[in-house]
Write a structure and sequence with these properties.
By secondary structure, this protein is mainly α. The chain folds into 2 domains: 317 residues, no CATH class; 64 residues. Helix content is 73%, strand content 0%. The chain is built from 14 helices and no strands. α2 crosses α11 and α7 crosses α8. It holds the Pfam family Virul_fac_BrkB. InterPro entries: Virul_fac_BrkB. This is Membrane protein. Keywords: Cell membrane, Membrane, Transmembrane, Transmembrane helix.
Amino acid sequence: MAHLDDTHVDDRHVGDASARTGDPAPDDRRKPGSPPDLRGRTWGYVLRATVRQFSRDQCLDLAAALTYYAVLAAAPALLALVSVLGLVGNGGQAVERVVGTLEGVVPPDALNVVEPLVENAAGGGGRAGFALVLGVVLALWSASGYVGAFGRAMNRVYGIDEGRPVWKLRPVMLLVTVVAVVIAALVVAALALSGSLARAVGDAVGLGSTTVTIWNIAKWPVVLLLVIVLVAILYHVTPNVRQPKMRWVSVGAVVAILGWLVASAAFGLYVATFASYDATYGSLAGLIVFLLWLWITNLALLLGAELDAELERGRELQGGIAAEETLRLPPKDARASEKREAKRQEEIERGRHLREAAGREQEAEPGPAEQEHEQEHEHSEHGQEREQHVREQRPGGPAARADRR
């Protein structure tokens, strides 16, 4: 599994948050105001840089990591979903409506994984209330892991460290998680509230058939609007960069949503027409397809984020700001980065002291060549002493003459 951390080797795209506090203001007047103000050469540069950075930032691996966190959040979210269906009543109709709606987006094999779980849990009846509370709590906790991972991925896209302290970062991520879960619940409710179920709810609250008909048509723009809001929040809040302004509809968000719809449809067509996942994976085919679809979804989100980041680089370059190596957006906070950098420098100093101490010890002790020379010298002295002793003991030698005296 890929790991999402704050380290990434790319001199062109990475910047320490503490070192970027002196960057120009996000809304610097030298920058073009909007994407239509960009020149043709700038657009060409942006598109090439987007493709290049998508590869350099290892977005394929980032999407795999995000898919893992999405799977962890999917089970409790599904529990909350089916609990809502059980509370609404006519749970069978609601399940059929949701499944029928997803058929146009989710690949068939992936839908086969979700459909039986929804059908089994929707008949919970009296347990729906408790399951709803439990599902919401678990969904918030699990989804916060995905939001945090998405924030780390966005920091890599913008080439900046996470500088926000934990006490500041965690509440923001939890708030984003709550908003994301609420939006997801509204999307599910909008998809489920149609057809006969919409008429039943309309009759219960006193709405006429005309209102229900209008809702059946208007729900699709509502769902699209909710998705746009969700993507905009993820793109703007999660990274540790101060962006020029909150863009509810950015170029990257549009590309991400449209790319996701097209890729999902193409993948569903491929699975239904050409692929043989059933023959290869057997009973696991639906799960494999579901994971691949989630991976494609996260790829689309990361591609849109890369495009937004490179568009900001293009605005800076066209405005005469030196952003060819690093994006010149100031961080939201650099305190955590400064603390990490201080600790890193302390580790470097300890390592330097360790190396220098080892060098002094090596200088004090004789090296292998010196030890070998001393041993040869000792052997030579011992040999000379033995030769002197032998000469003295020979007949006619000094020792023999002394004995005769």
